[in-house]
Design a protein that fits this description.
Methane Monooxygenase Hydroxylase, Chain G, domain 1; cytoplasm (chains A, B); PhoU-like_sf (chains A, B); transport (chains A, B); homodimer; phosphate transport (chains A, B); elongated
């Protein structure tokens, strides 16, 4: 807030974008590391993720302060205000993605000593890989102000949901096969749900980018859906 | 944003608080209704909750617009800025509580035709009742600018976490007893997790109120914890 060097408006916007790119890079890194911690059963790496999440929180606070200061000093209108508020919105989603990576790392810690069911782990890996790819794409879409790229990300979220729904069923089947599988399956279930939610936040960012570039919403309703919450039990 | 009637600053702040109270009341209502829908296996009520959540989203947007307009026009400093940003922060938490109530309602829809295990359902009921009480208290703390009340809410969140941890164990045991219990238990597990997260957002609001009144954070670290994510499986 106490910036003594007077910057131009464009410089301030560029600084905002730079911080968002930094935050996005960190979110990607934590998500990737939480998967590695899970797969390699590496409690040290998992603990690192939990600690590194604080850097994301700090960046969020910095961006928030800059946004307040910009609105107060510049009183931006229309396009500029849309840009600044979009940046703030994206920041909130990235902070939550960091939180979700932290949650996955905590699950990794909890089950580090357990043997992991291979086919289910590969399901988790595929979900994380797609979520990471989507996150990377949407950060590019923001950096390049590319509404079409944002729209593509938005559409692809359905794939993550489909993966989650199928993994959910597999995990339930695995539980039913042997009660001893219930503990680990529950942790993996929550882990998978966390990844599905990373996808939702990425979709939010895609919506923000689209609105920022085109000035209107992608759609009133969005494609995201965890169908397992409405799965009838038979 | 196009307010033609010029209001005093105090009137604008009062309007902001009024909208937050309205949003908070709605969040309480949806959470209560999602529990009723679950207990009475009432799919109609569950659907109502899903639809009503949109009213919370609309209020969030209204508040956000008012906040931007106030910062731009008034360029508030120190205390006033803290108040306005606090309001925005609380709004975000209330919006997420609305989302969580909606998720519980979706679970209620999914298991409306199942017979519900009574002791576990009463565990869920107690969690929701405490979460509702905490939410009511923190909204009062905000309306009255009562930092001590906020602190009390912050401290009591540990009780919701303890309830969740014990319910988590009971649900796992119930699953292990009979594979046919796995489906419904999984839905209840996610439902319980949603309530635990309502508690976390209520704790966030308590922190915001405390900061807003006293000007410093309750603590660097907060009491919330879902211990189940680090529960070792034996």
């Amino acid at each position: 807030m106490n910036e003594h060097i007077v910057k131009s408006y464009e410089e301030e916007l560029a600084l905002l974008d730079k911080k968002i790119a930094q935050m996005g890079g960190l979110a990607e890194q934590l998500l990737g590391q939480s998967l590695s911690a899970l797969e390699r059963r590496d409690p040290k790496l998992a603990e690192e993720v939990v600690i590194s999440d604080k850097a994301i929180d700090n960046l969020e606070r910095e961006i928030e302060e800059q946004v307040i200061s910009m609105i107060a000093r510049r009183q931006p209108m229309a396009n500029d205000l849309r840009h600044i508020m979009g940046a703030l919105r994206i920041t909130t989603d990235l902070e939550r993605i960091g939180d979700l990576a932290k949650n996955i790392a905590k699950r990794a810690l909890a089950i580090a000593d357990e043997s992991h069911p291979k086919p289910l782990m590969s399901g988790i890996r595929h979900m994380v890989e797609l979520a990471l790819h989507q996150l990377k794409e949407v950060l590019d879409a923001y950096a390049e102000r590319d509404a079409d790229k944002a729209l593509a990300v938005w559409r692809h979220d359905a794939e993550i949901d489909a993966m989650y729904n199928s993994l959910f069923r597999e995990l339930l089947t695995y539980m039913m096969e042997d009660p001893r599988n219930i503990g680990i399956s529950t942790h993996l279930l929550f882990g998978a749900k966390n990844i599905e939610r990373v996808g939702d936040h990425t979709t939010n960012i895609a919506e923000t980018v689209h609105f920022l570039v085109r000035g209107f919403n992608i759609a009133d309703d969005r494609p995201k859906d965890d169908q397992t919450s409405s799965t009838l039990i038979s």
